[in-house]
Amino acid sequence: MGRKRKASESEAEDAFEKEKENEEYRNKQQQKKKAGEIVPSMIRNKERRSEVHAKLKHQKKVEKRKKIQARDAAEKRALELGEEPQPRSVPRTIENTRELDETVCKPDDEELFAGNDADEFSVVLKREGTPKVLITTARFNSTRGPAFISELLSVIPNAHYYKRGTYDLKKIVEYAKNKDFTSIIVVHTNRREPDALLIMGVPDGPTAHFKLSKLVLRKDIKNHGNPTSHKPELVLTNFTTRLGHRIGRLIQSIFPQDPNFRGRRVVTFHNQRDFIFFRHHRYIFESKESKENNSEGKKAKDAKLAKAPQEKVVARLQECGPRFTLKLISLQHGTFDTKGGEYEWVHKRNASPRVSDTLYAFLPNLYVSRKWTQAEGGFSCNLLWNIALNCLFRGLEAFFGEEGWYLGTRC
User: Could you tell me which residues belong to the region Disordered (predicted)?
Assistant: First the structure.
């Protein structure tokens, strides 16, 4: 009840602030009308309205430039007098207005670093063993899946592709243990498009299930480059929380810890607002000549004093592909297990629950298709059809094995 009250109070405050802003905007418009200023919304002719809008926009830009020049001049004057310049105002953004997370890791957290020495990835990250990755697909593969897998093989060193066939995922895990693989990646496809990744540590886990979206293959990237066989450098950014630290170490265990810097390859996983953006680049350093255009240099023209050009080192990037976005759905202890597995973290939706969602909570391992259950007033024929499908899939699970249906997708 307390959370609902807090939520209702915050909603009321937001509504009050919006009304206040709208009133201020109306008052400003009325003041402009009284002062005789032309407001573009008052003009009915479209061409005339666009001209007035362009003029007002240009005036605002000129005023902003003048403010910046006056601020820079004031800062320069203060520095010349030996005074501290006035601090600049920090813009309000989504990143600096987020609520502070209590699970953010601190650099002096001894418990965290002690746990790193004993976790599942310590053998690979301490360079006591080389990472060896097995890549496979779901049982029902698509046309775009193999192209994505071939590009993953070019990104991840020492990765091997095995055709899935009719094998259960538990049998694949046993095979990977016997062949000394350190990680398993399962690419799931839906409607001829890869839509999920299952990354599993071998032999002790953990298992991370990601939603995959906005996939762009190498051939679709303009002016793309071709990667070499060198071991890439790995860049992980914003994996600062406890969960992010664990996911970062899981991703880190896939790649070797001794990159070849001569290859100039870099693989980036950038975490922002709980989305992980993947990029793959090649880089090169170039030296360019830069001349200083100062007022002193202009005055020195009369004295025929030409300044020598200075060399400036510039880095250029060329994207090699692929490009995609990941979102963590769940993190499970150990290897893949739908029945007896314990989950470290599961993504929860913030939307209000529907009648069908409450029924799904009482039916475990239910194969859910949201497009079939659009009726929200109570029982529907589609929901009863889903219940019948659930019974059918449980029978198939008992017949084929214990793999089951995982989070609405078959792995």
Answer: 1-90
